[in-house]
Amino acid sequence: MQTQAIGSMSTRKKLWLMFRMQPTMYFGIAVLALLTVVAIFAPLLSSINPLDINPLARMKPPSAEHIFGTDALGRDVYARVVWGARVSLVVGVAVALVSVALGVLIGMLAGYFSKLDMAIMRVMDGLMAIPNILLAIALMAVFKGGLVTVIIAIIIPEVPRVVRLVRALVISIRNQPYVEAAKAVGTRTHKILAMHILPNLFAPLMVQATFIAASAIITEAVLSFLGVGIPPQTPSWGNIMADGRNFLSIAFHIILFPGLFLAVTVLAVNMLGDGLRDMLDPKLAKKI
Q1: Model confidence pLDDT, tens digit, residues 12-43
Q2: Each residue's pLDDT tens digit, 61-94
Q3: Per-residue CA distances from 93 to 155, 177, 214 (Å)
Q4: What is the SS3 assignment for 142?
Q5: Where are the domains of the chain?
Q6: Which of 41, 131, 228, 234 could bridge across to 140 with cysteines, CB 3.0–4.6 Å?
Q7: Does an H or E element contain 191, and which?
Q8: Angle (CA) 82 233 254, round 5°
Q9: Cα separation of 265 and 87, whole Å?
Q10: Distances (CA, A) of 197 to 166, 182, 281
Q11: Given this structure, which CATH class describes domain 48-268?
């Protein structure tokens, strides 16, 4: 019993010390967890359909009936903001996961196989030469708009950045003694990549994934605000702000609340990324 009590106290102490060392990271985790709950239980948190139009309640200020007010069509802004959290979180998570997966695959090929390096990196440099927003807008203009199209349009500009990071890490790892030893004993290439190189990419890629997620959420909002992202009838933070931009002087609340949610979400993701970076690289944290 005493051993168990000591073990539990030790665990609590470690958690407390981790919280004291990285309070911003845990704040980011708490905010993202809350937003996830809001997105999942959006139908329960809002009794009003975000698509319902009520011409008699156009541009009403925040009140007991409409917490965040209404927009130019009389739609409840609170309901639309809550449902819009789903779009932003899905886009952020999907873009981060797919971009990292593709970036790891392509970057490992470029970094480990010198013959492929030149061809792969020139393609990546070409993609990086085009600004993210312009490339995403061009892709959205070619293909039919929708959530999947938005995700793909954001993924393509993000992949080259992951590829460059992975390539640089693989080049620095492939000449390490343990990799050379694995080659000497006849270990197959795919096993070397999976067992000796891939695990060493985990820490920096976790940090990179958080920044990609934050960038994807902002890009989706920008595309929707410009009218080339999520379809207008689908509630998203960018669409809500786009609907309210013409009524800024008389109904500022239409843009205020989705803007606050967007800012807090991106701030939480960046805090999580900064905390992971400091935790996984203590030397860099001391320098900063």
Answers
A1: 665 556 556 677 888 889 999 999 999 999 88
A2: 888 888 999 988 889 999 999 999 999 999 999 9
A3: 11, 36, 9
A4: helix
A5: 48-268
A6: 228
A7: helix 189-192
A8: 50
A9: 12
A10: 10, 11, 18
A11: mainly alpha
